[in-house]
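If your schedule permits, I should be very grateful for your opinion on a structural question. What I wish to show you is a protein chain and, alongside it, a tokenised description of its three-dimensional fold. Would you kindly read the sequence against the tokens and tell me how you understand this chain to fold? Here, with my thanks, is the record as I have it:

===
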Amino acid sequence: MAIENAWSRATIGANRPAVFYVAITNAGSSDDALIGIATPAASMPMLHQTVVNEGIASMPHAMSIPIAAGQSVQLAPGGYHGMLMGLTEALKVGGNFPMTLTFQNAGDVTINVEVLSIRAEGPDCETDGQ
């Protein structure tokens, strides 16, 4: 698995949930799936998917996120994403925290997640136009 651009948005406090986004590429020859996330930054991290039905958005829990062989999946605003509930402290711009991604076949991979502005739409937003 190739994992890139892991990021989250800063939070106003620890009592509100945070988000987790990342790009995952399955460079292998067999299908796999992201089946869980874990971080010491939150007591209840989970995978969600934004679903719009008849103009109403909801964010149901995703039991797994399939990643076909040779394909990429983006956890991004408006789609699959990680919800980080029960933050241990507020996430601050410029900070970072570890995240362990658990894959059905590839096992656990621990990465570093950068904390961007509360208004960020992706890892490149911080430098665009500056």
The longest strand covers residues 107-116.
